[in-house]
Write a structure and sequence with these properties.
single chain; mainly alpha; flat
Length: 27
C-alpha cells in the first residue's frame, strides 16, 4: 500500500510528517 504512496508522501513529507507526528501510526 505504501509502495506508490510513499513516493507521494516524500513530496508532501512536510504535511505527512506533521500528520504522522500527530498520529503515531507509522511505517
Amino acid at each position: 500500500m505504501w509502495g506508490g504512496a510513499s513516493r507521494r508522501a516524500q513530496k508532501a513529507s512536510t504535511s505527512v510528517g506533521e500528520a504522522a507526528s500527530r498520529r503515531p501510526k507509522a511505517s
